[in-house]
Amino acid sequence: MDGKVTLKLLMVGETGVGKSSLLLRFTEDDFNPDQPLTIGVDYKLKEVTVDDSTVNLAIWDTAGQERFRALSPSFYRDAQGAVLVYDVTKLQTFTKLETWLQELDMYSRRNNVVKMIVGNKIDKENREVSREKGLDFARRHQTMFVEASAKTKFGVQSAFEELVRKIIQTPGLWEKYGTSSDRVNVHDHEPPSVPSCGGWKCRLV
């Protein structure tokens, strides 16, 4: 990676909600209907330009299974942004967001991590979580919100871009605003070796 600012983003949520598919769509513009479940931690890099600022994104994708929770402290450390994903066709994955937010608050070293709630799989018909319910949850927790589909690409690119835009606008989260101790080096954050955007603007609600 070059000398550009590197932001650490997290992908969290229950297993099978499509975190890896969203990440694959964003970083490689690809979709695999047979995407295997993440084992431990996956990690991808992506350069993006938002509002004339070009930054490197180090995006960590974690397994949703309980047995990998021992990785949590190192996973959450020094992250500036978090994408909390649920499956709009499975209510249980939505109700579990409370737990994921609590875990993020527990292990994060920052109190101003920018959070975005993403309701994935809106291309499917058997919806169990309405858009209104997702919006209400985001309002109560003061997070950003978007519904998306990794399969159709809807909302994916703009969701990540809006998250980065908010991080850039938050004093102390980007080295432009912070001290040298706030700076993130991609080499410090390599993972351990272990087996309506689109139609409407993402926003803080």
TrEMBL record:
It comes from the Eukaryota. One of its GO terms (biological process) is protein transport. SMART domains: RAB, RAN, RAS, RHO. It is an enzyme of class 3 (hydrolase). Keywords: GTP-binding, Hydrolase, Lipoprotein, Nucleotide-binding, Prenylation, Protein transport, Transport. It catalyses: GTP + H2O = GDP + phosphate + H(+). PROSITE patterns: RAB, RAS. Signal peptide: none annotated. InterPro entries: P-loop_NTPase, Rab, Small_GTP-bd, Small_GTPase. This is small monomeric GTPase. It comes from Cryptotermes secundus. The gene is rab18b.
